[in-house]
Amino acid sequence: MLPTKRIRMLFSNYIVLRVFLINNTVLFDDKMVYLAKMNLERSFVMRKALICASVLSMLISSKAIASEMDLSEINETGKTDVSYSISEGLEFKSNGDGTCSITGIGTCTDTELVIPNQSPEGDEVTLIEENAFMSLENVESVTLIDADYKVGRQAFRYGEFDEINIIGGNPAIQDWAFSNCHKITQILIKNCDIKMAENAFCECGENFSVYIENCTGSIGLRAFWLGEMIKLTISSSELKIEEDAFSNCKDLKNILITDSKIETEKSAFYICGNEANVEIRNSNVNLGEVAFQYSSISSLLITGEEIEIGDGTFSACNDLSTVVIDGDNTTIQEHAFISCENLASVFICDNEVMNNNIKIGETSFRYCEKLESIIIGNGNISIGDYAFYGCSDDLIISVSGASYTAESINNGIFS
Fold first, then answer.
1. Cβ distance 343 to 366 under 8 Å?
2. Nearest-angstrom CA–CA distance, 220 and 239
3. pLDDT tens-place string over residues 191-211
4. Is 141:165 a contact under the CB 8 Å cutoff?
5. What letter does residue 80 receive in the DSSP assignment?
6. pTM, 2 dp
7. How far apart, in whole angstroms, are the C-alpha atoms of residue 323 and residue 344?
8. Positive/negative CA dihedral, 178, 124, 237, 174
């Protein structure tokens, strides 16, 4: 029999492969996915298939990684160990104490603008002033390296550049700093402790992608609100995502979070996505109240040690059809998936682990009228009253290998 962690990894990669195939217009029958999952532990052929899927998934990931920007690591001093051509000719204002602020573009004509940390006189930059680069033109990219300073209110607002790179340091991005930059195609934030104020990047982009790697900090209120974002990738990070941070990003196709610790506040991804695939892998997450409510999500995969899904988090996500949740300690609060009208199959800790801690709140899957099967694994299991109220009469619920009707669970058999 395969080890538990291996089975989890293989199934996780299988789901990733399925999502990839769907995105590339290869038809893949949901019934096959359901049968594959049901036979995971029993079928040697399926194990071989999953191993092949795992290998192919890794190849796909390698290709994706190779095509993306490769920036260097942080050195022992905590600074970015990479060579950049620092832009010259910018305007500075000295504070008279060894520090200064940047006030404007000055005589700089660089198309790839790299913000310096010091003035020509050696003063340390502590601030890019309000409106300093507003409506910046004739620039392709803006890069902040080891930014231990504030980027002031509206500093780059309405800029006509394609890329933003924030690498290293402790940058504080003030409200509206990069908002309404409509030509943006990519935002990279890497190796830093970042603080984003409200509306920092709101109403940005032109089918753009956001990559956040190896970061700590917070993504502020409405930080990316109304952005034309199509992809969000967060890896190896510990972040607090505040209220409405990604709300109304209606073009999102992919959300991928790996090896991270994520806490979201209320409505963080409210009314978000365009039949998006959401994958949260090997991460500890606390998804706040109505975080994804009314969002267009087609599939959801969450794996990790600590998983908490808040009150109404995925409620009324009407494009959602498949949910896979696999965590050592999994809490699904009341109303979490209420009224997901096309949800068909749910797998919760369906693994070989015998001591999962699983708590499913009251009315959590209420009115999921097309829900056909739900499989819940082994361990300490609590299911609130009316968890499956208003679901299909044909719903099959498997808990620790035994079958139950929705009525028996709704009447409190696992309360």
1. no
2. 10
3. 999 999 999 999 999 899 999
4. yes
5. B
6. 0.82
7. 9
8. negative
